[in-house]
Amino acid sequence: MINQCRQDERGVIIVFTLILLGVLLSVALSFFYFILLDIKKARAIDNSTVAYYAADAGVERSLYIIKKQEAASSTSALRNIYSQSTVNEDGVFSLTNNAEWDINESSDFEKNFFRQRLVNGESVKLYFLNRQAQNSDPKSFGLRWYRSLAASPNLKMQVAINQLMPQFYQNEQTLQTLVYYAEDNSIITDDSSDAVTFCYNFRDCDINSNNCEATLPNPVDYVVELKALGEIETDDVDHLSVIAYSDADCLTTSTYGVTNLTLKSRGIFNNNRQIIVAHIPPLDPLSGLFGFVLFSENDITKE
Q: Confidence band (pLDDT; 50, 70, 90) for 80?
């Protein structure tokens, strides 16, 4: 009887040993699994960083070409320059570390960027340049906008028109002050169900005159700044457009107008992708600097 009990105890010990080994194996496998996940995440972060800087290389190279070559004022012209290079093909560039970047998704005008800035309560700047070389063309621009039926009754659009040519203003103390003249700063609203065009003229006012009675001897360039005042939704901006006109009554559409460029550079490394979007205004006529607003689709920012 005693021997039989001891045999039963040995059987129980074997069972508990197997259970303990199973638990220890499960714990070990769990730690191994989490360690593999951490390694995979760390590798993905490293690959994403390389892909980001590959995309950044595409933006920087494109900016250099645009700055140095006036022919690259559009994305099609930029791709053409890349296609003529011996190391690029259709805007695709391979780096020495097996990373790649391309600009094939770039566009000459990215309305989503302007829409989102207005929805976020930020201002949007639109440039009208080279008017002297174009014989005062454009002479006006039309802002066409109406609010959606669900829009806030307090929603308005502020329009500021500023000259980019500095003038010397003769003040009361007969001192000359350098001033950039603001021809208009108005607030508009529209309660109609159909879009209405608000026409604004580029008057080339002399700052020393009263109410723009005298004009400057040569046409000047302008920057028009738009900003939504009040609560605004994306639908309200969908019905907003700005068009340049070659006459003062906003009747004949101008072949010249707003100049913007949106570079979208995609960096690829080990199947990891990062996209950097650079929204580029024209060359800044005030400072002579080439500036751009930079965004990444994966919340990576660059100062």
A: confident
Structural domain boundaries of the chain? Answer: 1-110+260-303, 113-245
170: which strand partners? 176
Q: Amino acid identity, residue 301?
A: T
Query: Over pLDDT 90: what percentage of the chain?
Result: 5
Maximum Cα interatomic distance, the chain, rounded to a whole number of Å = 125
Token duo for residue 272:
């990891």
Q: Is the pTM of this model over 0.70?
A: no
For 210-226, what is each residue's pLDDT tens digit? 778 888 888 988 888 88
User: 138 preceded by cis ω (within 30°)?
Assistant: yes
Let me know if 228 is exposed, middle or buried by CB neighbors in 10 A (0-12, 13-18, 19+): buried
Contact residues for 216 (Cβ-Cβ < 8 A; gap 6+): 165, 167, 204, 205, 206
pLDDT higher than 50, residue 298: no
**How many CB atoms are closer than 10 A to CB 182?**
13
Reported as a single tens digit per residue, the pLDDT across 30-62 is 888 888 888 788 888 888 888 988 888 888 888
Sheet holding 196-201, edge to edge: 196-201, 140-145, 240-245
CATH number of 113-245: 2.60.120
